[in-house]
Amino acid sequence: MIVAEQKPIEEIKGYIAAHKKILLLGCGTCVTVCLAGGERQVAILAPILRMSAGIEVIENTIERQCDAEFFDEIKEQVESCDAILSMACGVGVQMAARIFADKPVYPALNTMFCGTNDGAGQWSENCLACGDCKLGIFAGVCPVTRCSKSLLNGPCGGSADGMCEVDPENSECGWQLIYDRLKRLGKTDVLMKNTPPRDWSKTHSGGPRRLSREDITQL
Amino acid sequence: MNDTAEYKSASNLEKKLAAGEFAVTSELGPPKSVDFEIIKTKVELLKGYVDAVNITDNQTAIVRVSSIAVGKMVLDMGIEPIIQMTSRDRNRLAMQSDILGAYLLGIRNILCLTGDHTCFGNHPQAKGVYDLDSIQLIEMVKNMRDKKVFQNGEEIRNSKKAEIKEPRMFIGAAANPFADPFEFQAARLEKKVNAGVDFIQTQCIYDMQRFIDWMEQVRNKGLHEKCKILAGVTPLKSVGMAKYMRDKVSGIVMPDSYIERLGKSQDTAAEGIKICVEQIERLREIKGIAGIHIMAIEWEQKVAEIVEKAKLKR
Asked: Which residues of A touch B139 (CB under 8 A)?
């Protein structure tokens, strides 16, 4: 899922300070699951903003802010407000801005990463959405994401006791994980083939990416 | 036969190693300002004692004078440079452009590194590039030299009708026998050899037994015959430095016996030099070691003494 966390309250208050009435809009998908911007977080943030920012705050949460169709139900509500404070990820914030062209839209969250839930209140980054998945080679552990330097021919010299020198307390060395998995699967020999440089044009380096599938667009 | 036909790069380091002579390299860290005197002083300390000197590239991710610029300066002052190039700060375009430029300036040795992570330096908010890793960088420099092509496969010529003019570098890389997973480190050197590395400088060695074990793996793979291995040493200035290396620097194994020796000594610096000389003497005995790389970190004034005491005088 997309993992996000709430912005510092002062930053949020700074965005909405000039408005009298805002719609605090939650999202029912990823940010609900990662406890950052769902209905419950809307209900917690709204009274804080009412009290500290002294403005009228209307609450609502739609199923997905990344899909235009879910905004239909809130169009009248948006009309009655000066601005939208979105508790979605950055994708949802932008969709709201696209749909409500004349309304200011502000983010209440920092969108962090595509990650796993590693236990109560714990998440970690696992996918950079690079557009050219190599997990099939690397035993299901992503070197681009899990290695701090995105090495394709790692590990570097900064791996000690299974941990990465960038954050030895918390961050496992992705290459130790790759090595251990390949060893368990009896496939460490695949590492002897040098992995060529990546085609970064398949990432954001090639510009904002689009996906158009004719099998669906022509339905 | 002219030099270029006989050698890959015709650098002095390459010739020396090719002749089977025991090579000595050292390190010169460029200053964090445009203080030319610092560079000049370090050159004077090293000149005549080493075959070539690594010019570090924003070492520990701290911004400093460019390794290529300082490489050119030390070349003009009579020392052969090995420019270090990290893939942390530059993408493949910038690196190839700099390799062409370095070659035109007369630089013939390059050490290909990934580089210390930006989080350790003085610009931790900088974007780490890592377009290539060190192994991909080695292969790129080798293909520029041997296949005469850029990383994209294009021939190195100014136009379709122009003559091919390729940069011919003697290609080095680092190896860390002490990093984890230990059992993969010799294999990782093999990957660098397969990528086309000509010489290796190791991380500083303190744990001799682990290094001997690693070298045995290296020899079993025949890697010492495919690339020249220079064993890295760093003299210890103080107990504090030894403890810092033990506790804070990943990929360094520091035996307690050295810390004890330094602690008991009346003259810690002299003891540090003595330890270093002993290490060099032991390293010279190991089959497959082609030279010594002395990394006297901000202690360049001791390189001459170490070289003389270890009887490595050029």
From this structure: 194, 196
Q: Could you give the CA distance from residue B4 to residue B189 in angstroms, rounded to a whole number?
A: 27
What pTM does this model have?
Answer: 0.95
pLDDT in tens, B118-135: 999 999 999 999 999 999
Domains in chain B with CATH codes = 3-309 (3.20.20.220)
**Neighbour tally for A48: CB within 10 Å:** 13
Residue A168 amino acid letter: P
Identify all chain A residues contacting B180, using CB atoms and an 8 Å cutoff.
Answer: 155, 159-162, 173, 176
Q: Which residues of A touch B195 (CB under 8 A)?
A: 194
Q: Is the ipTM of this complex over 0.85?
A: yes
Probe site for chain B from A148, A188, A194 (most B CB atoms < 10 A): A194
Q: Rounded distance, CA B129 to CA B275, Å? A: 38
- Domains of chain A, each with CATH number or no CATH: 2-112 (3.40.50.2300), 128-206 (no CATH)
Mean per-residue pLDDT for B235-256?
90
pLDDT tens figures, B148-159: 999 999 999 999
Q: How far is Cα B245 from Cα B207, in angstroms, rounded to an integer?
A: 12
